[in-house]
Every structure is written in structure tokens, then in C-alpha cells.
Amino acid sequence: MANLQVTSSSSTKPLIHAQNPARFMIECKLGAKASEFGGATFVHPTTRKLSHACKSQAIQAVLASDKETHASSATNGSGLRGKLNKVVLAYSGGLDTSVIVPWLRENYGCEVVCFTADVGQGISELEGLEAKAKASGACQLVVKDLTEEFVKDYVYPCLRAGAVYERKYLLGTSMARPVIAKAMVDVAKEVGADAVAHGCTGKGNDQVRFELTFFSLNPDLQVVAPWREWDITGREDAIEYAKKHNVPVPVTKKSIYSRDRNLWHLSHEGDILEDPANEPKKDMYMMSVDPEDAPDKPEYIEIGIVSGIPVSINGKELSPASLLTELNDIGGRHGIGRIDMVENRLVGMKSRGVYETPGGTILAAACRELESLTLDREAIQFKDSMALKYAELVYAGRWFDPLRESMDAFMENITKTTTGSVMLKLYKGSVIVASRKSPYSLYREDISSFESGQIYDQADAAGFIKLYGLPMRVRAMLEKEKGNN
What we know:
With about 475 residues, this protein is of the alpha/beta class. It has helices spanning about 20-30, 65-75, 95-110, 130-135, 145-160, 170-190, 205-215, 235-245, 320-335, 360-375, 375-395, 400-415, 445-450, 460-470, 470-485, and strands at about 85-90, 110-120, 140-145, 195, 220-225, 260, 265-270, 300-305, 310-315, 315, 340-345, 350-355, 420-425, 430-435. Homotetramer.
């Protein structure tokens, strides 16, 4: 797993220096494969120089200034609501999380370590975070690249299980939250934090997903959820609070939609979507073209699968994140993977969301079709029934629940022969199966053929039908006897 991290340590000496470390971080992320990086990098709190711990080539960026050191010393003593030592905050750099930083310091008298996870939301969302975190009063910024871990350890198990929530939702946000929360627990241990915090509202599913992960991995951590505690009720309140505490308000154009993006999907909620009667606007979509505008010529792609896990596109083996990235591009230009649904949130209310999952839709179709060759009827039916519960557990934030982990062991075992390839035709929003093949295929042409063969004698079907239909015949005989009486 690649590991982009900015952290401070008074005992660490710089190993490598960069003139422009922020630019260096961005250029390296764009130009290198994630599997080439790992390890940890530390930046001394009173310098702006990049040090590079080089065993697995982790790429790190700037942090630290005298202003940060001063900010940290200003948190001595208890806050308005109590005392915490250090809090790791899930941080995006937007208005809400920028305001949470001073709110935590004011109410809990603590240092705040901002944490940002790269789960494939795009490099533009990672730019400038260090400056924003410092301006808000954070003592430290930690950024980790979780893209490979996200796809390999979270997306692929759900894909193998065939997990789909309420017939449509491919669990994009649901899968991302536990990998982020797990990383926060790891960071809390690294920096000596006694608490973690998130910016989820009290009406959504994400608060549950974050906190169940915290509970599962470190029950000793205190959890702070400002949206359930503070008096801020909306954007204007947040702006006023920011001005009062000298926190620069992020000068970004506010989207009319609430969006969540990662390497698996992009979700859209809010504005006109709050009325299920409204059709989504054409310019809302960002990952996929309108199927009407997609190419007039179909594109064929072959997905290679080993034991239920995708490994290649058109014969080229790729890492999990690279494979999904390429399929997002391919599927997006053909308008693949648009889903509009009304779902039941875990907290009880219904919500309407529109999802773009181009690569994921292609992979789900490929895995499902290959299973039609490699699994028998009973196995498919039982696996499908378990997939419903699997999806429900993931949606509800129970990723680290022993039940999901046990079900995953079943999914791994039942799909061990799901190996082969599926050829798909992509055309104007649709995914059409062109061919499927597997060395473990249960399909036998010599048996399925209408021509008589040695393995299957058609005359045997008569006895089978009589036995299989015996309960129906007995019931009909009984009803006939009663009718005659």
C-alpha cells in the first residue's frame, strides 16, 4: 500500500530535502504506480523540509511552522466540554472540517491532527490541504494513499460476494468508510491521540460506519461527533463561527449537490434530487457521458478473473486500483453505470441518490456471468441469499463484524473455481455479455445438446418428473376426492 503521510516527530532527522515538497508530492503521485511506494516520512515541526524514509519509497509533503507550534501550545488546559489530549480528525479541507478544528480546540482543549485519506477522489481534492489545516489551527496533517488497499481489501471482497444493497446500490461509500476509519485508528496510535473525530451529520449512515469501526479496532478511543454536539445548524452558522475564530473560509464554489467520490463510484444527493419525481439534470454527471452521447460503435473488452477476483483487462494484468481506474475510463465514455434509486438509510429515513459506478458495473456483470458457468444451482441460490445479508452488513458499517468476516470466508471458498474470462460489449449505457469461458465450467455441450448422448438418456426424465411432481399429484387427488363428496 502506498503511504502518503505528513507527520511531525522531534526525534526524526531529515533524510532527503526537496525545494518544493508540495509540488513534489503531487507530481510523484500522478506519475508513479501506487505499489512502488510505502513506508513513512516525517517532517520536523519547526522546518518546512521534506524527509524521505526510503525503504519502500514513501512520498511525503510539507508540514510545520512556528505558527503550528504556537497553536499547539495554546491548547493547554481543559475546554468548554472537557479535556482531551490529542484528536485525529477526518479532514477534507472544506468548510465543515475547517470549522471543526478550532471547535475541538475550544471545547476540548486539545491538539488536532488532521487526517486525509486518498481513496481515489482525485488529486485536486488533496491540493492545498496543508495550508488549510494550518490556517484552521491544526498541529499536524497526515495524508495516506489508501487506493490499493481500498480496492484490494474492501471493494474486491464485496464484488466477489455479489453484494448489492436494495437491488441497485454497489456500496461505494459504504466500503470506503471502514478503510478510512481503520487508517484513523492507526494514525491515532502513531501520534499518541486519545480521541478521533468526524464531520458526519446525525442524520446519515456515515456516522455509524466510522464509529463502529472505531469501536471494533480500538474501543479505548473517545469519539467526538461535532454535528451531534454543537449549535451550528447550517452553512451560514459555520461561516460566522469561522470568522469569529479567524479561520479562513475556503474560497471554493459550493456545489448544489452533496457528493462523495472515490475510485469505485461518485454519489450525488440534494437539491432537485430530494424530490424523487425530478429527473436528474444532464450536467450533474461527472464520471460518465450521457448514454445518448456515447459512441455509436460498441466496444468489446475481456475481463480476466481468478477465484472470483478480477485480474486483467484484455489480457493485461493490472493492480486492483489500476484495473478499476482503467475500467472507469472505458465505462465512463460509454455511459455505463448510472443508477438512480430511493434507498432506506440505516437511521430509518428514505433518501434519494444518484450513483455513477462505471468500472464497478462492468466488473459486477463479469463476475456474475462467470459464476453462471462455475457454480451449480444450489450454490448460486445460497450465495445470492448470503449476498443480501453481506450487503446489509457493509451498508450498516459492520465491516469488522465477525459475521461479515465469516461470510467472507464462505465467499472465498465458494468462488475458488470461479476462474476464467468474460467478454463484454459496451454500448450506450448497456453492458452485454458476448462470451464466457472457464477451465472449471460445469457446462457440458455433450450433455446440454438436444442430440441424445451416453451421459444423459432423455427417457430417464419420465421417472424423474413423476417423483418430482408427486406432491402436486397427491394434492390434486385429494381435492378431487373432496369434490366428489
